[in-house]
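Many introductory courses stop at the sequence. We go one step further.
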Amino acid sequence: MWEQERPADWRPEEREGWGSGPTAARTRPRTDRPEDVGTEAPGPDPGSAPGSDPGADRTTERPPEQRRRRSSRGRSSRAGVPGGPDDGWPSSVDRRHHRRRRSSRSRRRRRRRLILFGVMGFVLLLGLVVADAYYQSYRIYKDLRPLSPEVALIRKSLAAGKIPAKDPFAQAELLADRAKNDLDHARPTFAITRLIPFVNRPVQAVTHVTNAAEDEAKAAGIVRGIVIELLGPSVFQRTGGGGQGTGTTGPGQPAGQPTPAGQPTTGGQPTPAGQPTPPAGGPGAHGAPVFRDGVVDIKLLESLTPRLKQVAQYVASADAEARAIPSLPSQRFEKLRQKTVEEATRAESLATRALSVVRLVPSFFGGEGERTYFVAFQQNAALRGTGGSILAFALLKIQDGSISLDQFGSIYVIDDRFHGIHTKYSPAVQWYVTNAAVNPRIANGVNYSPDFPVVADSWKKQVEEVTGERVDGAIALDPFAVGDLLKGSPPINVQAFPRPITSDNVVQVVEHDQFELPATLQKEFPGQLIGKAFSQLLLHPRDVVGMLHRMGAALQQKRIQIWTDQTAQQAFLQGLGWDGALGQGPGDYLNLVQNNRVGNKIDWWGTQKDTYTVTVNADGSVDSAYKVELTNGIPTDILATGDPGQVGPPRLRGIARDMMSLYVPKNAKFKSVDPTQVTGPHLEEVHPPGFVEHGEGAFEVLTQTITAGPGETAPLTFTYSVPGVIQTTAQGKVYQLTVQHQPLVNPADFTVQVTLPKGATPLDAVGWTVKGNVATFHTTLTKDLVLRLVF
């Protein structure tokens, strides 16, 4: 603790003073050189300058903590050596080794810093690249965002057969071209980011969306040209001024201005006051370029094939691009992506269908030779399986697109009402002819089955036998269809009926009012009506686009049904659902068919309330109960004064007696029917006399006849089970129900109630009302349905 007192004349450079005293051992200078090891006492360095001491700068004692940091290797190598590790001072070897280690560590630290800075710089640069690519993607997306409403307007315009004043086709093409240009001229950062996995998803998404938009815009541009060529300049819609709505204008007329009375329009001819403006195409022309004055332009249709092929290619490419859009972690984006895929798929389906139409329609309209079609005008007031008994007929002849009525009139002009027309029928038709004990008449007998192709084939054979004409197909339509087709047309006047017939009253007149005419006029009226109506619709159409649009709705509702004996054309009609055929999808199936079994027209006042109850079992089967409540709503005054042809013969006056046939899956197992017996007067006339079960094609048919007096409701319930109805999918278990309908005067009130197994929860129940494990669906049955319930 205390230092030894030194002489006053002591100087540090004097070496002798270091070796004496208690601290001599601790203050002895160390030697730097290996050759000094082993000397007893250090002496002055011969090579040093006089008066200098090489070890003078190492006389300070090293602290213990520094000594502890010495290399163990150095200590071991110099143990026991004076001036070595035992003296507490590092050797020159230690120092050199220390310097090398310190230099190595420094180099490693510098390398690590350089690598770290390099990685940080690369990440920063990559982030900037990706950020710039994302910014470009967003700009392209902004260019495409206004495209969605334009595409929606295009679809709406095509459905209506009109092109708005603000042409959405041109606007869509402009937006798509702008986005494509931005994509093609994107900065290199866009292409770099597209190569980076996962990070590239937004870039890939906007690329696929842009390509799909470009393809759709090109397809839409071609379709626009086709629509104009088919329908003429009348497709251009002009916005009316002063809030007057929309309309079309003639050449040189300001948009939105109506044609004044007495002023020239198309063809330079004045339009008398109160008279409609003639359609485009010149004086006396009626219709559009594709269909005018009763002639379908087959060559025009055939010329569309190459362009429709282009459209099909573009929409197929757009569909592929839409499906390639990657998923992103955004629920909103996923919904948009799914919508894009669905719309692209729908567009591809429509394009393929349009191409099929153009290929098949020419032959349907006599492009390959004359075609003759039997036209059946049915009435729903006396129900039959296909819609109703036949009032009138026509033979429609078509050759090279030219349409004409060869024969037309009351059905009894060609039918044998007392003996029927016997020929070879299909098993489905023959079952009803035999078991319903009816004459196989054209009007009433062969149309008890709801399967229209089967019935139409029977009509073809009967008509060919009676007329000697070759028949290539059949078309059935009812008064509801005629009313739809007559919209926009002037009233029809016929000699047998005292009032004008319009689209608003034709159903009432045909289904009810005509039966108040004298018997002779009742026979003449249907033929006169069908002759005048067809002449007006085929030879003088006012609105071809609107008529075709309404015809499409009538086909969906089975107000019109079409069949042909040409295989390819029939397959196309069946694919569209226009042929009225029975068709079952996977899962469950229903089709209730009502056949009037009394010679009356009481179905005009009849109503149906149908309830289908389903219990789903754990093994995938279902227990089913179908209940129909048939109400006879005939008014009292009609009952008292009505013609027998309207309210029935005296012994069954006002009685609704209907044979109800429920079509179910082929493997259904019947359990019970209630009532078990037919009720009402004159049971001896009922055929079949009670419940009967039979097969028809891919279906099992449960049949019972019920009777409802005036103002009464007659219930009927069938119970049965169906195995293997429930399907297992990736989404979950699925109950699917296909419902086909019969066109009635008053569409049925229809309810389905499905009880799922205990603990089951509906996952996808669009259109259903769900309470616990019970799902309910309700509608007015105007068209065929496919209902789906995922749980």
